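Review form for a predicted model. The reviewer records the input and the model, then writes brief findings.
Reviewer: anonymous (R2)
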Amino acid sequence: MPPAYFRYILPHNAASDRDILYFPYWRFKGMIFSCVTGGRVDDRFVDTSQQAVASRHFPFSAGLRPQVGKLTFATKKSDGRFIHPDVAHGDVIDLFKNSLTRFLPRPIYHQSYVGDAISLLYAPFYVSGRLYDAVLNKPITNDMPEDLVATLDKSEKIQNETRFFSAICPACGWNLDGEKDASVLLCKNCQTAWQPTNKGFTKLPFVCLTEMGRLKTSLPFWRITADIDDISLRTIADLSRLANLPDLARRKDAQIRFHFWVPAFKVRPKLFLTLCRRVTIAQPRAEGDHKLPEGTIIPANLQVEEASQTLKIILAGLAKPSKVYFPKLNQIRITPRKALFVYIPFNEDHHDFVQPKLNLGLRKRLLTLAGNL
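Model under review:
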């Protein structure tokens, strides 16, 4: 686990006798949802970087290299000198905001940032009479500028580092299953789910909605209970009034607590938002088995903290008319209180995953293409 954010190193091609100097870039990778004028929610995926130390000698951005290069973790054992960032981690979103939103129509009523968010990326350089790019082994300055020395003096060894835990089930000692970016690891021996934290693994309650059918593939979702100020949205009947959905008000369980539903897996922003809205409107009951589903299980790689960032965006998409509610978004406060990890079963054919009771489907290739999100 990282101390506050992940630190990565770009590989270099310099000779082994070179003293590598790593220049820092803040990287934002994730989805951005913006509520803009006209009642529209703009969605986009962004992977961008910019200098973490102001310098006219180093490139302003790391470019496409983080997307095509094989990144490794920066640790205390990493060779080289690392320039310490001037811009603090807590100020990075403000640093990116102008560049990420400059083309959006105004006013922007609310924004949510969801996904991998912020990491620190170190790009390799070295000095040999002048400053060289250690990836291309080509000079990026004509000589050794005097004011570059002040930047080089900020170099140091890595102090904080990513800690690793053995993927062993704390309950039974079996190997935990999970992809490299998994936010939930599974033990198929004792039928438990575990969430990585800074202190190790925490057992995660979950339910598989077998009442929707024992189908071939299960997709993970977060069901989030939240308190909402300045707006009445506590029951399914309240959702019916807010979203102008009279069929919901006629449900037998119309007085049952309202919950937000968010995918626990990453897909393209437009589909992600569609899944949020469709399952939230459906308000399925979280009833079923408390053991792992049979068949294929789609990995969960979106943490509940990240999923919670979407709640106001989901609300904005539900509330009608939007021209009335959008200007109020900054005053509306949503406080997540409780989350339940839920597997929803889907049928699988050659092209699609389909959940017949929710009248919901998504293309299988869209999950495949989401591997780099």
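Findings: The first helix runs from residue 65 to 68.
Further findings: The radius of gyration is 24 Å.
Recommendation: see findings above.
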